[in-house]
Amino acid sequence: CPLKKKECAILTLLFKNPQQIFTREQLYEQVWQTPYMGDENTINVHLSNLRNKLAKLDPDHSYIKTIWGIGVRLA
Prior knowledge:
mainly alpha; 2 strands; globular
């Protein structure tokens, strides 16, 4: 299934910066290009949808790793 625009932007950002850990605030501000207002749910939903779509394509590999208490990065 194709990725939505924001999902693609998140994945592109992670692939361009494979070693960087992004906080949800950083992801929001770089992908949405607006100041982060604390809506963590928006990021969580997009990350969840993206993980589900990637899992359908490659169920044996997790591409997005959560670094608890910090953020996410490319696995």
